Amino acid sequence: MTAPVTRTAHEVSAQALAWLHAHRERGALPPDTTADLGDPDSVYKPLGESALAASLVLREAVAGGTEQRMAGELLGFCWEQLGEGDMLYERLLRYTMMTDPLETYSPFARGGLRHEPLDRLLGHTSALRSVRGAELLPNRRLAVANAARIVGLDGGERAYDWHELARATWLGAMPEPWLIDWMTGYCVTHTVFHLTDWGGMPAGLPDDLTAYVTTWLPVWIDIWAEIEQWDLVAELMIVGCCLKEPYCEPADWERLAAVQHPDGLVPRDGEPVTDDPARRFSDHQHTAVVAAIAGTLAVSRTLGGATN
User: Fold this and answer.
1) What is the distance between the alpha carbons of residues 209 and 196, in angstroms, rounded to a whole number?
2) For residue 114, how far is the Cα from the chain centroid?
3) In angstroms, rounded to a whole number, what is the distance separating the alpha carbons of residues 186 and 191?
4) pTM for the full model?
5) How far apart are CA 95 and CA 101, in angstroms?
6) Is the pLDDT at 279 greater than 70, yes or no?
7) Alpha helices in 27-85 (DSSP H)
8) What gap in Å lies between CA 275 and CA 283, rounded to an integer?
């Protein structure tokens, strides 16, 4: 069963990455963008998500030469859009309590793109009680902790209590699995992503939570596939790749491949996809990101990667 998953996952991820690469200019920041970011979710956040996908393709190093090149170019494009880190530095300098400069920086740091003034500023702000005590949703606290770990700020007196962070989440309580809803589903996926650093450290998910997710993940994938919520389905498939014993089912991959468009677009849901190029990108960019990540991790795990 491994070979069909590896092949299909590679095809899905390669096409999704190619789509992101081909349309990357549609994700460029408007020329007058400043660090104030009136609407961070419009372009700034998607740039960070594309950078995340590219950084994981480069980290796993299981894609072909063409995909590795595209991932490097996509990561470089996103870095250039952020002023090679200058915008992140300026944003953190102005808004010290904001966590997004650190989170956005982490995939670039993973890919070897560093900004020395930002590193120094993060070294200062990450130790502040005000910053450490910022009130965030539990899975968001994990996001910040994992970003700090990637950047190199999770050590000594700044070390995070990963057990405490995990248990504060919905997943950490191992609740009644049938009460999961759409938003909680996303919270569950990100809890797993950050505890395991996107599948790079499967042992980061505690054994009891691993058993719980292993039992219920197939059910959750089927539920959201039935109602054609492909973005969440792909995120749940990433979760499967983050487990100590990866859950990568051929039927799930065949189903995701079947809805992918010939140009590589992966639809967000079962609604009709518009012909308008700008809307196609803005509506479905995130699903292409998660499909590229899911496929990359599935190929890596089925080939024996990430055993820690």
Assistant:
1) 12
2) 19
3) 9
4) 0.96
5) 9
6) yes
7) 44-60, 65-81
8) 11
